[in-house]
Amino acid sequence: MKDTIINKTWILLLISVSFICGCVATGPVSPFYRYETKGKVLISPPYLQVLLTEYNNVNSALIKVNSPYKIYSYQSERNNKFLSHPQLSNQSAMTEPVMVFYSRGKINIGKPVGLWNDDIIIVPSGENSLIQVGKRNYRGYLRIKGLPDNKISLVNIIDLESYLVGVVSSEMDENWPQESLEAQAITARSFAFYRIKQSNLAGNQTRIFDYDLTDDVFSQVYRGEECTGPKTRQAVEKTRGIIIVYDSAIFNCIFHSTCGGHTEPINMVFGGPDAIPSLKGISCGFCNQAKYFQWQAGYSQEEIIKMLNLKNIQAIDDILITTTGPGGHGTEITLKISGSSDIIMQANRFRLALGPNKLRSTNFRITRRDNVFQFTGRGWGHAVGMCQEGTRGMSHQNFRPLQILEHYYPESKIVKIY
Question: How far apart are CA 196 and CA 47, in angstroms?
Fold first, then answer.
């Protein structure tokens, strides 16, 4: 089915990412078609910077590079290969892991290698090179950034398609249906493009962070090569360059584990302007066999006070869900406090503070017995966008990846940009 010609919003997106890719195509813009396009928009995938959160602001880390590598000085005006950056050294492959740390304004990579600038990139040679950080292996490059108090942060710099293999294998099991894996690959690719867009539109002066994503649930889970397999690689390769757009523009197509029966409008969960049609929430009906379709969790009054960091609060009289979304998820929580004013907070913030792996969603009922608040709920995650367990249910009913995405993101289009 033919899509509309790219509008100005989409063109602005491409301009915003072109400094990463260095590869925006020239010539007239061709109309998009589902899963195909007559004219490429990008020649190759962009490179991303992914913060390895376990190694953010740490004293040191163990790394190993299995091939010869070069060390470059990092500069924010980056390109795909970083070859225009000042080259500092050529090094041989590491036979054993070495310690990296930061001292006196210099980064040390093992005693034989020596001291370098305060922000460097390790660029391995060879197509199948791997960089080991701790117990995990990563493709691409490794940025080592010196921080105050002799701390360091490690950032994996990697092309989008290689990154997605790690994301899909971390977000879903290798044994899931191929249709689910392909839907996840397209959604994860689209989300990554959205984050690039947001970073670049902010500009270097107003950006808080100088990386694009983190490797945890606050972006999308990414464990490098830890869980990758032939099915996840096939899912990424088969969907190469395909993303989701609404009204010819990239959007924040986030996803979650289990919606519990109905997804929610993004603005009701995270705030902000009214949701576009693709993020207004829909009835799911495909995740009722999920492990955490129903769950229970209990917290003592003291635990809740501590986890919410409620200073000078001695007791909670009650916890109420004061507003809900169309899918039944709480969107606002009110805490009744003894001898003090009520505390009102966003339900998702409440959930994250109490631990998203225990208080699995905001679709819950609350009962109290003595000093314990008991939560009985449905689903796992924030309930916005694609329900991952729902994709598995749809796959088992012979829905194709395109149909899955159109179900969870109504009025969206599937387009190929490289």
Answer: 10
pLDDT in tens, 366-404: 999 999 999 999 999 999 999 999 999 999 999 999 999
DSSP strand pairing (249-250 vs 87-91): unpaired
How far is Cα of residue 228 from the mean position of the Cα atoms in its chain?
17
Element (H, E) at 196: helix 178-206
Q: What is the pLDDT of residues 20-48, one digit of tens each?
A: 333 333 333 333 333 344 456 788 888 88
- Mean per-residue pLDDT, 47-60: 95
Instruction: Give 292's contacts (C-beta < 8 A, 6+ positions apart).
Output: 257, 258, 360, 379, 380
Distance between CA atoms of residues 292 and 356, nearest Å: 12
pTM: 0.87
Residue bearing tokens 């829905």: 399
Residue 177 Ramachandran class (φ > 0 left, ψ -120 to 50 alpha, else beta): beta
Report phi then psi at 41, rounded to 5: -90, -40
Distance from CA of residue 380 to its chain's centroid? 16
Q: In what order do the strands lie in the sheet with 119-124?
A: 87-91, 69-73, 119-124, 141-147, 151-159, 47-51, 213-214
* CA nearest to 142, candidates 58, 62, 236, 230: 62
**How many Cβ atoms are within 10 Å of 348's Cβ, its own excluded?**
25
| Structural tokens at position 28 | 């007239």
Residue 21: count other Cβ atoms within 10 Å of its Cβ: 21
pLDDT at 334 > cutoff 80: yes
The number of angstroms, rounded, from the C-alpha of 128 to the middle of its chain's C-alpha atoms is 25
250-260 pLDDT per residue, tens: 999 999 999 99
Q: Centre a 10 Å sphere on the Cβ of residue 104 and count the other Cβ atoms it contains.
A: 9
Distance from C-alpha of 358 to C-alpha of 257, rounded to nearest angstrom: 14
Place of tokens 């969870």: 408
Residue 125: both structure tokens together: 């040679």
Quick check: 205 pLDDT over 60? Answer: no
DSSP state of 25: P
How far is the CA of 164 from the CAs of 40, 228, 377, in angstroms?
20, 10, 31
